[in-house]
Design goal:
This protein is an alpha/beta fold. It has one domain: TIM Barrel, CATH 3.20.20. The chain has 12 helices and 11 strands. It has an 8-stranded parallel beta barrel with strand order 1-2-3-4-7-8-9-11, surrounded by 6 helices. The chain has a two-stranded antiparallel ribbon with strand order 5-6. Helix 11 packs across helix 12. It is globular and about 60 Å long. It starts with a strand and ends with a helix. About 0% of the residues have low confidence.
Length: about 350
Amino acid sequence: MRFGYWMPVFGGWLRNIPDEKMEASWDYVRRLTQRSEETGWDLSLIAELNLNDIKGVEEPALDAWSTAAALAAVTSSIELMVAVRPNFHQPALFAKQAANIDNISGGRLALNVVSSWWAQEAQSYGLQFDQHDDRYGRTSEWLKVIDGLWREKRFSFEGERYRLDGAICEPKPVRKPRPTIYAGGESEAAKTMIATQCDAYVMHGDPVDAIRPKVANMAQRRERAAGPPMQFGMAAFAIVRDSEAEAKRELERITQLPPKPPAGFDNFDQWLSGTKLERELKLQEYSVSNRGLRPNLVGTPEQLRERIEEYEEAGLDLLLLQMSPQAEEMDRFAEQVIAPMRRAA
């Protein structure tokens, strides 16, 4: 299992805890990333949003690609998986930019291709926002341009959205045949595109019994497409404590709504209907993004190691973890979970 973490470009991951002691700043992410290399983390996912969908749209959110370029120059081993949304980037110019960052890093760049989901953000910046399946049509064409520029000396292309005539991208990326391309999605259009054009499938958090058939399904799709084996990743929120009771107390703390509802709570109260259990589950879905609490990585080091081994047996090879406060919790997780698992391997 490889262990990755979400870079806190939004100043945290909890929607109902305003101050998580991890400001959205270059200084914080630089120190965090350099420390993560020392403690055994494999990868950092840098999300790309211009508006802050965790703390409220008017709160700071770091730019993904300038942050990645800066981190590439001050780190030496960690893989930098950077989110990119095709409707925000002209592909030929982006291919040049990303290849340059990969060279700065010595071949440690990876892409997390996201077919945009937030119409309000695109519209506020005056950008195109495609309807659902059209998004994957754009992404598919965009990936063909990127891949062609990274592989060929001169590349020409004529599609519905993009046209190139003898374009050149030099220097090429260091990583061969290209930087790893991760993508996620649960629709038929998304799965078809990922199985045929990407290298790795990333999923929102879910229990093992839900992840296992997803991995099997995508592996079968990949085999039918005659591609090399895929990698599989999953998002999760982790809480590790010396006792299960302590971990559950922390879970209760981060999923309780404060007296004054936080930014982004609009209309959520209407969704909070049903039984007490249903309300608790919905609050957990709201509190932590990407269905991060569904994998139940909450408990003692021994419990977490056991659950992670179950995911590994199901075919997962990458965890993308959120924690709060990130620096302190990542150190704890590295010492109590990552290090023992690697010693036992």
